Here is the input.
Amino acid sequence: MEKKNKLIYLIIGIVIGAVVAFAILTLLKSSEDTEIHSSAEAGHGEENNEGDEHEEESVKLTNAEINELGIKLEKVSSKKLQMHTDLTGEIVTDPDKLAHIVPRFAGVVKTVSVKIGDKVKKDEVIAVIESNESLVNYKVKSSIDGVVLELHMTPGELIGDDKHIVTVANLRSVWAELNVHQKDIDKIKLGQSAQIYFNDIENAVSGKIFYLSPTVDVHTRTATARVRLNNSSGYWKPGMFIISKVLTDFVEVEKAVTLNAIQNFEGQKVVFVKDGEDLKPQPVTIGKTNTKYAEVLTGLNTGQTYIAEGAFVIKSELLKESFGGGHGH
Here is the structure.
């Protein structure tokens, strides 16, 4: 009888254990299904949010509207980039066209016929001086055509014959004198083309390097390069600070876009690409650049259509939308 009771208790224990195990497994499976379902729903929601955000960050324009806004489209393609080296410097007077006029005899200035800034012709009378030795008046004349830059005399003043009293310069051509740092010396050569400007590269003028100093300044550690510039308009003023882009070698790049295509948008560099009627900002990584094009390392594919000119219009439209302005088109 005792053995029979023990067997019954053993069977009951086994049954209870099986029921408990089944219940636990059922709960675990239910929990997994709930987590998987919740995760799928969350993923679906994120995809929708990303899609909504992507949809918001685009502007729809027809081809007619693109033309109307003056937007120019191009395709991402390989380019041979003309590279350049940036130099700074100043405009200086051509010393061969600069005259320092010294009186022939010491004496008293009787009359002065010009002022600083006046234009004079060669042999034009600048002043009349009475010689101390002979007490005879003689004329001081300009030795070149040019502009009076300095004037060191006034009527009645006693002057000597050891210092110049007038400086006249012909400024119809001037020099751009450029500072070449040691790290750039190997890149700069005689005959290279250089674009010279002082405020906006769009106003740059081109010239060629005709002189490169054989020595380096011991104080600044720079060599000097010179470019001759036509100045018949008077645009360039001696002493003016200038910037130069000296054209050096060529580099082949696999993908390139115009510089104007690259915009700063939401804290990153982007290029606006065309997908149907949608114009969307595409983040990019930029490599080598020159004055017109930039190499694209990542973000765009060869043959992709992008906004080459007028990207700021689309950028402005998206910024307006982000402040609640709505779509313009």
User: Anything to note?
Assistant: The first strand starts at residue 59 and ends at 60. The helical segments are 2-56, 63-68, 311-322. The radius of gyration is 40 Å.
